Amino acid sequence: MSRLADYFVLVGYDHEKERSGCSSGKILQRFPERDWDGCPFTQGIELFCQPSGWKLSTQRKQPEFYVAVLTDIDADRHYCASFTFHETVAMTPTKPDDEDGDDHESALVHHSLMFAPKSLVLVSRLDYFEAFRNCLGILYTVYIENLDVQLETLVGNILGCVQVPPPGGPQVRFSIGAGDRQALQPPLCPTLPATQISVAHLFEQLGINNTLSIFSAVLTDHKILFFSESYSHLTEACQALTSLCYPLKYSYVYIPILPAHLLEVLTAPTPFIAGVHSSLRNDIYDLLDVITVDLDSGSIKVPECVNLPSIPEIILNRTRKLLSMILTPQLLSADCAFSPSPKKPSLVQHRDKEIRAVFLRLFAELFTGYRSCLTLIRIHPEPFISFHKAFFLGYRGMVEDDFTHRVLDGMSFSSFVTERGPPYRVCDIFDEVYATIQDELKEEKNHPDKMMMNTKNISNQLYLNEFPNPQPYIQKVPKPTDGAYARTHQPAFPTLNSKTVHEIIEEGLSKSSIKSKIANVRPHQPRIVPMGQPISAIDKQQMVENHARRLEVLRNCINYIFENRISDARIIFPAVLRALKSKVARLAMTQELSYHVLSNRAMLEHQQFDLVVKLLNCALQNDSSMDEHGVAASILPLATAFCRKLCTGVIQFAYTCVQDHAVWANLAFWEQSFYQDVQKQIRQLYLPYYEEHLVSERQREGSKSPQSPADSHDTSWSRSIGDGYRRTAGGKYRHREIGALEIAAEQLRVWPTLGKEQRDELMSNEESTVYSQAIHYANRMVYLRVPLDVHKTLKNTTGFDGESNSNSNITASIAESDSFDAESGFDESEASDVGANVIRFVSRFVDKVCNDGGVTSDHVKSLHQMIPGVVAMHIETLEAVHKESKRLPPIQKPKLLTPTLLPSEEVVMDGLRVYLLPDGREEGTGGNMGGPSLLPAEGAVFLTTYRIIFKGTPCDPLACEQIVIRCFPISTITKEKKLSVQYLPHLDQWLQEGLQIRSNAFQLMKIAFDEEVGSDDAETFRKLTNKLRNPPNIFHTFAFSGQTIHEATPLHKHKEKNASLRQFAKRTLLKTARKAGLKSKQTTHNKKKYVLPTPPSTRRNISPRSSDSESERPNSDVYDDLSIIDESEFATSLSNDPKNLERLMERPSYLDYQRLGFANLTMAGQKSNRDLFRISTVNANYSVCRSYPALLVVPAAVTDESIRKFARCHRQYRLPVITWRHPRTKALLLRASGLHSRGLMGMLRHNPSAGTSSGETSSSIEQEKYFMAVVAATPNNARSYHPSYSDSLTSLDSLMMVGLMDPLNIPETPDVLRRGGVYKGTPAARSSVAHKPKPGFLTMPRRARRGVQTLQRIGSLREKSRLSSSGPEARSHNGNLDSRGDLINNSVQHLHRVRLYVLGEKTQMKGIKMESFPKCDFIPVDFYEVRHVKASFKKLMRACIPSTAFPVGEGFYKAVEESEWLLQIQSILQLAGATVDLLDVQGSSVIVCLEDGWDVTTQVISIAEILLDPYYRTIEGFKALIEKEWISFGHRFTHRSNQTAANQASGFAPLFLQFLDVVHQIHNQFPLSFEFNQYFIKFLAFHYVSNRFRTFMLDNEFERVEAGWLLEEKKPSKVDDVDEEIGFSPKHQHQSVGVSIWDYIDKQHRRSPIFTNFMYSPEDQEQVMRPYSNISNLKIWNYFLNEDLCHGPSYDIELVIQELRQNEDQEAEAMGIVKRKILNGCYDNIMLQQPNYFRLQFQEIHKLETDLGHLPQKWKVLWDKLESPQRDSIHRQISFNTQLVKSHGRSIHKRSTLEILVKGKMLGEAARMFSQPHRFERHTYTTPAYCDYCSHVLWGLAKTGMHCIDCGYNCHEKCQPSVPKSCTKLKTVTDTSASSSNLSRTAGSDASSTSVGTTTMYDNFSTNIGENRTHEGYLYKQGALLKGWKQRWFVLDSMKHQLRYYDAMEDSSCKGFIDLAEVESVIPQKNLPGAPKKAEENSFFEIRTVRRFYNFMSTDAKAAQEWIDKLQSCIQ
């Protein structure tokens, strides 16, 4: 029995506080006045009566009723039912009468008659809301209607006379004395919440999805806040939400109605459910982690920072389906052809219970199997039960489910386990649903219609719980008449007589009539809780059956181990390790091992012990630290059982070898394992008392059948898992085992019947059991927490939780981390610290479990005293074990294999035993790629003078007969990196040190040093590797090792005073400065000097984008780079010795000049003959250009003196020289470096400060003469060649024909224009387009165009960010753009055939005077700089040789795409293709002058020559090409390949490799056109960085001459020399200057056809090749991907042959003659192991000749004797399709060429668009400004500058002469009629010209026209330099989508603009630092673009807001 209400409270308005300015309520009366016992009165109740605040009202309001919920300190809820009405209050005026009444500042005008709220409140612990409403309503009715009933009587009856029975009791009918009849019906079940219709109402308000979202939020402990205009709705929604959580109880803050004074509660860190009136929404802010729910609008808002986990998918889908069937039943029949008869809608009460039934099923399904995971620790006196969370998650498959994790971790679930864990208690509907849910789900799977039926059965029980009486009682409750509250004269609510009320309460309590009736109510009887379906039965997959084969292998392996058949066990051991990935196999392994423990076979031999430990470690490694499958718990007894004897008295247990796993550091694991074992002991304690157990034991004893230990050894919760694996007696019935919970239930049932002595005995036995088990576990924890070596830190990492896909339990990313080893279980490595940490860890465990298990304080104290002693004793024991374990003979490891070395290769460091680990490549790992598991491999790493070599055998026994070799030259190392801890599951070893070495030969060596390798040896290996990788100069590389090293002999060694270039440089430095113009002092001597390529200190005026970041040329590896050479001191130059020149002329590069017909050598002073060209010796002593060859091909008309003069016009003095001539068109191909813009444009001639202006002028003149000489040497034979019409290759017009079919991909806005270019846009200039727009670009007028013109080419170069900021104009100009159509028209008009095309950089084209270069055209082109090549190569290497596996969602092809390597290959092909077309189609000469002329220029020139000349496609021709273009012309091999220590910082730049890749691409497309094969290209790619040959060393010919390479006497090799057996004769060792790769290639080529392409068909090849450059036609070079683990890289041919012979000999010895062999792609070299038909035939012929005793002939002789097959002379008719395909391919090629030309012309036209002079005047700049020419600062009195009064151009006074004539002010004349007609034509033109017309339309509007100015005004703008504020006039133009700014309102030319298309947001700002002092706080705003932020300040906040609104309207 309990009271209906505990307190009645009358709360009114506090007029006293109102006078002091504070509105609040106060308690007027409360009954009873004394607190009830056990139910104190709750303070602060007046806050909840008016949650929005106590306020007076000017009008009467209807009475309101709602229920608030208050929670006391004991977490008990008190329901505060509040009935509020308003009373009349007479108010006195708030101001004196004589005061002016016009003050409107008061928020509320107090009238003389006001209405104050008053509340009648009932406080109760029961939730009978309807009864509260009735009782308070009756009180109000009696008061308002003035009924003849005393209010005191009513209040007393409510508090004292109305008693409510407990749940399950009968209905109570009562009256409070006002003629009323009321009834109360308690629910049947005390644990089920009563909801009436609140749940159904909540779903009506929010819908299914929103309700499920907040339901998920409640279960996962999030903060939820409800908003509503109704207080009742807030309480109802909160009650419904908590009811849905049944059987869980909400345990956090619960405030359905939160008063305004308590809003700070919402900032609490703990979860809550709260409700707030919508009127208070604006008072709540900064709720970053609160989910808000608006009940009135039905919406929820989840903050971004809140991660709301989702309910498991299967359960969620089933729940949604059921809710849809309940809430929208019409959906089931919506699609019916004949609508069914309408059904009577269900009552809201029924719908409410059906919804609750759905959620009840949800929890039953979610918690299925939870009772199987309950662990019993104590039964008496009170049961203590814990929940095994890890086991539940593991067997439910929810380890990764975040929702379930959070639910199980919550306080609600802890309470759930505490209340529902006991096996003997009162049960409710959840226990019934839980027991049957799985059966119902199985049934519903086959019969879906039963789903709703089962749900309704549950809902009926829920309905019956709240409404047990079928016939409701009709109540009678008096109510006031309508409108009674609005009566004018209402008396105040009377003050109740306290005495009368208390007397009635006492009288009511003294009556006992109801108590006698209640005594007959039967209490709910406890019973045994149903267990439900075991959790093991939920797993529907037959795991054991699916893994039967693996389990069989596992069992066999364990049997082999214990039978001491170690070799058999090792063979299948890798398969066992792979099988242990499965949880079933891991548990089966522990059970099988436990069987052998029980068989007294725990003492093992050393090899047995090692294998068992490996099994245990692998099982632990594949499990997580949670131990969700119980593997670690099963291993605990095994680890303390298996052991081996080290010596007499010293035994090592297995636990010392399995400590490095995170699970042992997890305290929760130890607790759960302890609880499991305690439960087993408690079960054994009570088991003998049960008859069923005794019968089962007798039958077991009588059975003679063999049985598994699992039958006798209780496995508790894990026993059901192994049922499928146990070896039980076949066919016998197995008795059911009595579980611990069943025993506990019986004990709890009989507990009340036991005497005190029996109870004490049981309690003592249980306490002793827990205590003894605590001692046992304390020892176990010490065993597994104290490391074997106490001086070494125990690894307790947490990085091994997840299952790995490989045999390694750590990912490569962890392995590569330097901080992986940073954290451990112990703070220090000292033994005392280790012991202290273990003591603390075990003590925490003991405190926790003993407190839970009810262990007495004395026992706990003794445990704490015992632990330090146990730890100390164990540490002492382990010292002996560790000492003896080190004395064990090492495990027999494979013998180290000796690598095969080259004749001159020496071992620097003997082999270190290592393990070669797998990297990110799948090949060789035996995974998805298949094949044997070659990696990891065990062997040794060797360091030689040439290579790093790993040689060993795979760890996998099934592949251990193969030899694995991975090696690469030391010189190719790009990066080496230390690796931390590595774990090898094959060997069960933790290897502390590792190394990862990456090679630019596309190799990656990831090794881990064996434990026998000391740290010092590993560090020595690293240091020696770095030393060999970075030699001081190239003469310390392998190319010169083992040979007599001669110091480089300088050519001027006879002069002692200048014995070296360094001394010479020091002596002549001053003279050089004078000649360079740095000093104007006259020189007196007559020795003429020339400055070699030393660039100026600043490169801005040369080019802002040089070939590399190293525009300053670094020092050579041998000599200083001071290029100052005195001709008179260079006495022994090459030109003085004709023999030297003759030797040079014998070089392949110079022989090629003779082949091309460039006449003969012309010595200085000789007159050339009538030839057009001559070979000049002007650079014979390398005085003109040190990086050029000694002999240069130039036009015959150009003198040497002229060459010396104009060489300075080019960077590095690399002047244009002829390298090739077209045999048909006679067009020339020239190469040079980039032009010096000052030299080219003759800028110095206008510079009065230059002392050498005449010299610079002469240089420019000589430059123009040279160009004219080249033009004159180019015959005008464009019409001499007449192909067919379909080919149309005669002129540039044929190129333009391509535009007829497809639009050209010309960028809409060239780079120069996009950056503002070299001119500024003025209004006149922007409106100057008056020409008729073209209907399409480069199309015929009558030709119809399909679709919109393509403006961006897919295959062309993408615009780089570097282009947007490379010029100084980018920082100073934001001028508008001219019409694109006008620019293109100008470009096309100038695109006509000329004699000479100059392909250069964009920056060279500025200010070029085309009239000085007639018949020449300058085409700026895009190309990738060296820095881009470097970055791309790094990404390519990471893609092709990744150190770790690719992340999910990424892959190899995506990584290759992101590297942009193929785009760079495409760029080279396109530039070379354009060169080919200009030479072959146009018949024009081409000069390629890009960067410094030794990188990209060389690539383009070389590829163009290969495409044009078939000679270069032969082996001899390719050699000549590389010698000429790459070696002679000074590609910086030493610098780009980082061959020496001095060049390491620059980074590896694979320019030559990129060239070879392009050759490979062409070879793929034209396989019949090359004499050499793909292997030849790979061979060069490998050895150009290997440093085995000298060919690709040093940076230029000058350095090679100094080294004595080029002038050496070359002895012809004998063709008939017979090579030695091992490969090749090492006769080159005796040379003094290393070996040339060409000699090696020639020798190999004579010996075998290894480099020969047998598909080569010279008569079928095309004279000129035009390859496709589309990305789709390019292939990833297999050189980047392939690897040969059999013998290492196949490019050291003699090494490969020796390794193959050794392998064949070994196989022959082991297996006899092997006729069949399996080849593996990543192991064997298919080309060598499986030769093609031709090589095979040559081998057969050689074998036959040897057998016959004949002298074998060379293969080439045999090949030449073969007759070519006879060709059919009948001419096949070429089909139209064939012609179409050929013409299409040529069209694509020509189209690419035309795009390059047109795009370049557009850039050139943009640079020359304006040629009007500026009108400068001197100007003093008071604010920071930039020089528009040099980009330096113009500021201050000392830095006055020049300002153009027309266009506003700013520059320094010194820069004025160099400023281009690009003033835009004079272009102001415009024809309005033409403009209007332009607009009309644009509207009617076809789609192809839409973009052009649109641009023209925008540009035809002048910026000064007022109609275009959406908004304008003065704003302060913060500058970017010194952050100063400058006032500017801003104009917002919505037509052009720009925000322009001017210096003043009157200015006509804008200083710049902000493109609104790039604006991301406009945000108001507070006061910014550095702003003017008078600035208002809110007058700032920020414009955020994609590039930068702009800060603005307006005059006031209003103007700023107006600007913000205008800007936002434009950008939306």
Keywords:
2012 residues; alpha+beta; 7-stranded antiparallel sheet; 52 strands
Overall pLDDT confidence: 76
Compute the number of helices.
60
From the N-terminal CA to the C-terminal CA, the straight-line distance is: 69 Å
Helix fraction, binned, reads 25-40%
Radius of gyration equals 47 Å
Shape by Cα distribution: globular
Largest sheet: 7 strands, antiparallel
SS elements, strand count? 52
Poorly predicted parts: 95-107, 540-545, 702-734, 794-830, 1043-1132, 1238-1253, 1278-1292, 1296-1386, 1611-1631, 1807-1811, 1866-1907
Strand order of the largest sheet: 25-24-23-22-30-29-26
Structural class: alpha+beta
Strand content: 5-15%
Describe this structure as you would to a colleague.
With 2012 residues, the chain is an alpha+beta fold. It is built from 60 helices and 52 strands. The strands form 15 sheets. The chain has a seven-stranded antiparallel beta sheet, with helices on one face. The chain has a seven-stranded antiparallel beta sheet with strand order 49-48-47-46-52-51-50, with helices on one face. Strand 36 and strand 37 (1228-1232) form a beta hairpin. About 18% of the residues have low confidence.
